[in-house]
Amino acid sequence: MPNPFSFLDVASGSLNFLKRTDEELRRVMPDAADVLPEPQRIFLEDENATPLLGFPILTDTRSEHLRTALDSYLEQETRVQMAMFGTQAIETKARDSAWHSYRELLVRITENTTRSSFGRRYSDIFWLYHSIAISRLFKELPRRVGRIDVEVGRKNGDVIKYEVFERFLDRVLATTYDTVHSVATETEEEQRGLFPRLLDKMRGNVLILTEDHIGPDMSELRTYFRGCLQIDAGTFRRRIDYLHHWHRAMLEADSTLRSLAAHVTSLDPMVDPDRLLRRPGYLAFLAEHRGYDHERLPDERSRRIWESLLEKLREYELLLSLRKLVIPVRREEKDLVCQAPNLRSRGFLSRTVTLSDSTRPFEFQTPWVVDPLVRRFGLIYDIAEFSSIVSLLKYSGRREEDQSYRSIFRFQRRVNQMARIHHLKLEKYLGDGALYSGRDPLRLLATAIHVQRFYRRAIRERFPFDRGIRMALNYGQYRLLPIEEGVHDTERRYEFFGYGIIELSRLVTGKASHAIETVKRMLLSLGYEADEVEKFFRPLLERRVDLVDTREEARELYAYVNQSGELINEGIVATDRFIEQIDPEGELAPYFLGVDGPRKYAVLEVKEAGGKVAVGVRRLGTPSLKGLEATAIYELVDADPWDLKAMMTLRSDNLTAALETIARSESFLQQSAEPVTESTERR
Questions:
Q1: In 3D, which of 257, 252, 222 has the Cα closest to residue 240?
Q2: What is the rounded CA–CA span in Å between residue 392 and residue 401?
Q3: What gap in Å lies between CA 332 and CA 334, rounded to an integer?
Q4: How far apart are CA 217 and CA 682, in angstroms?
Q5: Low-confidence spans in the chain with pLDDT less than 70
Q6: CATH of span 373-552
Q7: Where do the domains of the chain lie?
Q8: pTM for the full model?
């Protein structure tokens, strides 16, 4: 979100004291960009729309333990403070034990959020979430005092509320400082940058952690006036109420005041006279009016309190608007569900919705807070022999070298444009290729076919990097870790690590059987005679002849598993996990049988904006890939040149079943063609 205050555009509820303007917000909190965590997009189950914006917080028994521990501590701290207003002895043992239980959880959460944040403000998001429980418990604290002792509650309940709050805040700040200092020493980072900035902001405004709602008439602030400011709430309210009546009457009767008010505030004073009184400095302006009665209207002390209160209320509403974007989510079997606000106004029949399985909610009591392990569909492409071609182009002249770089730029630009059209995200730029990720396998499938078409087109346009292009697709586990920090999500850079990257890298390597050909071409380009080069490599080629399938390599783009179990990829390959995710529900049927020489493919049509893409899929086998577990690999080909109407329809419900049908038929044909021998006759 490029604007640090744009969350107010989606915040629910009205604002009584804060205007929805950047000027007002910057005045109230100039350091908002450094303090306020930004809400994130929350995808629904089908991922076609993102109507939710907020902070998904996982609520479970562990999160309930934190609130219960806080409740227990406040109960005991309240009893200790009440004892100071009564005759009973002060007992601190139960209070200290309750605080220890709460502190233990708070330290663990502070350590987790600090260590795992990497500039993502996990600590601030935690305090945004935890402040909800804190404010609700403190709002009810005077009633708690009254339940324990009616007389003490009647006389001193409001004062005890803020005494308890001061003790609580002192303990929390001391614990947080100590924990952050310990983590800073361990991570060799500056302690100041690790302390939760939002907590620092909250401690300066008592309303944020002690009230969960304040209406336009401020009736909820009775305990604040009496317990915190220690002024008579009735007298102060009477002065303010009389101010409202006097102000309206004066605006109607005094045209000069109307004109001055309009000039000072740039507002029509008759539209909403009460809102004018909430403008900074406006009450001081009114106090200079000749009709201002200092005996009945707010005196100088009351005006200072009013102005200070207005500032606190604006900051309170700013943080309350952000706090309303906290969305508790829970697990129901394998699903994440939540009660989402304002969904009915957007066409949803129920507020209860299921979130995308890619949602990673905040779990503050886990070490990573947000699980870095994600499952994504990945696509990687690699231009064959890129480095060697670049080396050779150095000897071709400056003009040819510049043209070659322009051509690779144009090609990669086309690829990026196609990836954006299919809503893929660029994860890594690899120089001679790139890694993209997505949540829909069909979009990656269509993108891979289009990239192959771009490459064929580039070759026709005399693309200098003409030794081939390799692509691989998978559905695997990645670790998503932040590499660069930024104020906004768009300024942060994350990198994919883990098994999924290794798998894709191995699948596009495809160099084992082609090292000799690469060296041969390099020697020829350097001026060696072709006969001499062939003579030199003939002994090696004779020993490796069984590793090359000439029928497969007669194709322009190809992939196969050779007799040594190596994957030769000069086309597009995909893992079995990717294939299994393409059409598990059978929504893409019918499937067709595509035949290309001895190769048989299950052909499907993928719908996209502006048409369809026909793709052929065939099983290659289970190659030996260094460092990876055994997995079946499939070849993907562009089937658009084939006539689907002339193909036989496969009686299969989904892609996996269609491939199994082809495998069974090939096995049957192979057994039928087996030569009759003595051993087969005996069988």
A1: 222
A2: 9
A3: 6
A4: 99
A5: 1-13, 47-51, 87, 341-350, 394-396, 481-495, 497, 510-518, 540-547, 667-683
A6: 3.30.70.1230
A7: 373-552
A8: 0.76
